[in-house]
Amino acid sequence: MFDYKLLSALAAVVEQAGFERAAQVLGLSQSAISQRIKLLEARVGQPVLVRATPPSPTEIGRRLLNHVQQVRLLERDLQSQVPALDEDGLPERLRVALNADSLATWWGEAVGDFCARQHVLLDLVVEDQTVGLKRMRAGEVAACVCASERPVAGARSILLGAMRYRALASPAFIARHFPRGIDAQTLARTPALVFGPDDFLQHRYLAALGVEGGFEHHLCPSSEGFIRLTEAGLGWGLVPELQVREQLARGTLVELIADKTIDVPLYWHHWRNGGQLLGQLTEHLARSAARWLVPLA
Questions:
Q1: Which end of the chain, N or C, is more open, meaning fewer C-beta atoms within 10 Å of its C-beta?
Q2: In a domain, 141, yes or no
């Protein structure tokens, strides 16, 4: 039988990105957390953590974390059927990984009523849509929104729709860099804005125009900051259409090439044995996401 106190210590260290914060969350000393991890490793006969900053799970650690995630959700189902088992009466916390652009646009409206009705708290982990699935593979989250269709073992995925991106810049930026009009080669030589090292939208856009290779760019790992820097004229960038309707209407941002868009598919991944709560959230998103996302061509 598993000792779930030991598994909870492992989950806390990974979720809180360190032993000190894990100890605070569980109300234990840091040495007690360390002892629980060592005892768990003694019982499974191999390391469950890579001692780095932040700590990361080993392969067996990921399997144990996946198990913990699913047990937590199944326990909630049992508590709803046998209320006496719910000793603390606290709402369920659901860890979900999603991309920053979804968080900045449609996600809040999509899940607000659901969370209120189900008395659930979200613990959101922000990752680029191209790599969010690694959080599920590591056992850190119960579900994720990402651009990959293929689920990890033990999980399912459904297509929610696509987020449409437009290449935008400020009028001043366009006047400064494109006095004779916009063409692909000139665009590749002007500063761009890129969210982070895993963001290849600008690369895809230039490739669609026939330009391959690197280009000058700022790095801005913030969806809101990305818009502000674009409006300020630091560079051009691919921006979610949902996020800039007001700016486009006011003319503070302008599309570089009319109707040259990129649609990024968004899939919802969730554990097969995730219990009723995860199943209900999945059904809710499947019904409601089309209000904000476009159909995938």
A1: N
A2: no
Tokens 């996302």, residue located: 293
State the CATH number of the domain containing residue 194. 3.40.190.10
For residue 37, give the nearest of 61, 11, 9, 63 by alpha carbon: 9
The first and second tokens of residue 94, run together, are 């659901």
Contact status, residue 184 vs residue 208, Cβ threshold 8 Å: no
Reduced to 3 states, what is the DSSP secondary structure of residue 98? Answer: strand
Residue type, 10: L
Are the C-beta atoms of 155 and 165 separated by less than 8 Å?
no
Q: Is the pTM of this model over 0.85?
A: no
Q: Give 166-198 pLDDT, tens digit per residue.
A: 999 999 999 999 998 998 899 999 999 999 888
Predicted confidence band of residue 293 (pLDDT cuts 50, 70, 90): very high
From the list 168, 124, 125, 121, the residue with the least C-alpha distance to 262 is: 168
How many domains are contained in the chain? Answer: 1
Residue 81 lies in a domain: no
Give the range of the structural domain holding residue 211, as residue numbers without chain letter. 163-263
* Domain annotation covers residue 231: yes
Helix (H) or strand (E) holding 264: strand 261-271
**Which pLDDT belongs to residue 121?**
86
Count the neighbouring beta carbons within 10 Å of the beta carbon of residue 130.
Answer: 16
What pLDDT digit, counting tens, does each position of 64-93 carry?
887 877 777 777 666 666 555 555 444 677
